[in-house]
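[Discussion] Sanity-checking designs against the backbone

I'm trying to build intuition for which residues belong where. Below is a structure token string of 138 positions. I'd appreciate it if someone posts a full sequence so I can compare it with mine line by line.
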């Protein structure tokens, strides 16, 4: 099984950005843990702060991978382009958010991705990526 994780803006700052919301671990450390926990899964990872690069990555992997775990960060609430890319590809895409977006600012309550995603996991910290991974492999 070939799964891909795509992270959007500011997620490269995990471990230092608002640790009270996002925790103190880097994503790279967590990703290595996921790879060790699921050795039979071919797991890859991409991060960008640029909307067009995220769209290109969804298109690049959305026809060749068995699933995508997508945390589009703030673009979740603003990007019709990312939603269109999610809708266009054949791989199931699970939308993930580390924080509970519904307990935060009102603008974070809207997601353009949720209606076109295969599923949504919100508010379980980094564990949300593992929950998404498990949902794709079962």
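Best answer:
Here's mine. Compare freely.
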């Amino acid at each position: 099984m070939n799964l891909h994780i795509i992270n959007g803006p500011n997620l490269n700052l995990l471990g230092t950005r608002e640790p009270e919301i996002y925790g103190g671990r880097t994503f790279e450390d967590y990703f290595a843990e996921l790879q060790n926990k699921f050795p039979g899964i071919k797991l890859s990872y991409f991060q960008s702060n640029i909307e067009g690069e995220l769209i290109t990555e969804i298109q690049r992997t959305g026809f060749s991978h068995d699933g995508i775990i997508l945390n589009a960060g703030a673009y979740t609430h603003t990007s019709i382009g990312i939603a269109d890319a999610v809708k266009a590809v054949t791989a199931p895409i699970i939308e993930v958010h580390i924080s509970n977006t519904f307990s935060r600012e009102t603008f974070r309550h809207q997601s353009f991705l949720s209606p076109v995603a295969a599923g949504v996991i919100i508010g379980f910290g980094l564990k949300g990526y593992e929950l998404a991974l498990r949902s794709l492999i079962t």
